[in-house]
Every structure is written in structure tokens, then in C-alpha cells.
Design brief:
Length: about 200
């Protein structure tokens, strides 16, 4: 009953479509408490939203302040969160610069080849762009750089050879830089039909 009350009244997915300000979701892709499927659901709202899905990032110490189960790249979450928050404050509250639109990604799988076509807004300097994908339910991720035909093209492309596996998750990550710092945006993750996140086994000593 307590969980049902929480989900009914406090889960942000209930309200995100009614928000009038900027919503910028920064979340680890291996967060057991707020899984990648929830990130995708939240990005379905009608309000202005941005997302930074941090590959190889969990909830932070896996519910333990000793870090005993901290097996993903949680050291990278703090700087990314700070960079995204700083950019949002500069662009939205102070009107300094612009905020790029959320990247989009179209994926296709032919045999063992994953192909991705991304549209990326070049409103700020693009430092790097990557296609990030998982074939084991977002348990582990691989990365390949995205490229484009010329410096003015909005469409970026990448391909990768997939190992055997099911549970495809894929998204584009863009590293941006403006006059005041670096920040990241990702596309809404693409999840294969019937996708279910793979959760790490949890055991206390």
C-alpha cells in the first residue's frame, strides 16, 4: 500500500506533462530504483524536457553510503549534473545563450549490424557525439563515435556489429561546450519491443 500511494501521488511521471518550466532529467542508465524505462516514460510528457542518460551510472552507492556496491561510473554523475544545471540556469533563467533541442535517434538492425541516424542541434559547439548501445537490458553499454558527411549537416550516422543478445537499448550522447562550460544532452533512449531492464543481483554480506 505504501508503494502504491507513492506511485500515485509522488511519481514525477504523473505531473511532468503539466510542467511549464524546463525539465532536465539527469539519470544513470543502470539505476535500479529509477530504471531506463522510467526515463523513457518521463520524456513522453508535453512540457519542455531535456535528458542526459549517463551510461554506466547507477543510483549512487546502490543505497549504501559505504560504496560497497558502487560498481558503475558514479564519479562522472556529479560533474555532468552540475554542467547540465549550470547550462539550464544560464540559458533559461538568465537568457544567456541558447539551449539546443533534444537530439533524436532512429535505429535499425539488419542481421548483426546496428545502424543509427541522429539529428543533432548545433546551437552550441559540439565537442563529441556517440552512439551508446546495450544488448543485455542496459546492464552494460558499448560506444561508437557518430560522424557526418560535412560540417554543416545535422544528420549524424554510426553503425556497430552486435554480439548475440536481446534487450536492445540505444541513445545518442552529445557533449556540448559554450563560453562558460561543458554539458551533455542525450536522445530519448530507444528500447526494443518487450524491453525489460536487467537488474544486478543484490546481496548483503
Amino acid at each position: 500500500p505504501a508503494f502504491l500511494r507513492f506511485a500515485r501521488h509522488y511519481d514525477p511521471v504523473q505531473y511532468v506533462g503539466d510542467f511549464h518550466g524546463l525539465v532536465w532529467i539527469v539519470n544513470g542508465t543502470q539505476d535500479e530504483f529509477f530504471p531506463i524505462t522510467s526515463t523513457v516514460a518521463l520524456m513522453g510528457g508535453d512540457g519542455p524536457t531535456r535528458v542526459e542518460a549517463i551510461y554506466d551510472g547507477d543510483h549512487g552507492y546502490y543505497g549504501n553510503d559505504q560504496g560497497l556496491f558502487d560498481s558503475y561510473l558514479n564519479t562522472g554523475i556529479g560533474p555532468r549534473l552540475a554542467g547540465c544545471a549550470s547550462k539550464a540556469i544560464r540559458a533559461v533563467l538568465h537568457g544567456k545563450g541558447v539551449l539546443p533541442t533534444t537530439p533524436t535517434l532512429d535505429v535499425s538492425v539488419g542481421g548483426t549490424t546496428l545502424s543509427g541516424r541522429a539529428t543533432i542541434d548545433a546551437a552550441d559547439e559540439i565537442v563529441a557525439a556517440q552512439l551508446i548501445y546495450s544488448v543485455d537490458g542496459a546492464y552494460t553499454f558499448s560506444r561508437v563515435p557518430l560522424g557526418r558527411g560535412d560540417a554543416t549537416a545535422e544528420e549524424w550516422r554510426a553503425s556497430a556489429e552486435l554480439d548475440a543478445g536481446t534487450g536492445l537499448a540505444a541513445f545518442v550522447e552529445v557533449e556540448y561546450r559554450d563560453d562558460d562550460g561543458t554539458y551533455y544532452l542525450t536522445s530519448v533512449p530507444h528500447l526494443s519491443e518487450g524491453f525489460a531492464p536487467r537488474i544486478r543481483p543484490f546481496a548483503f554480506e
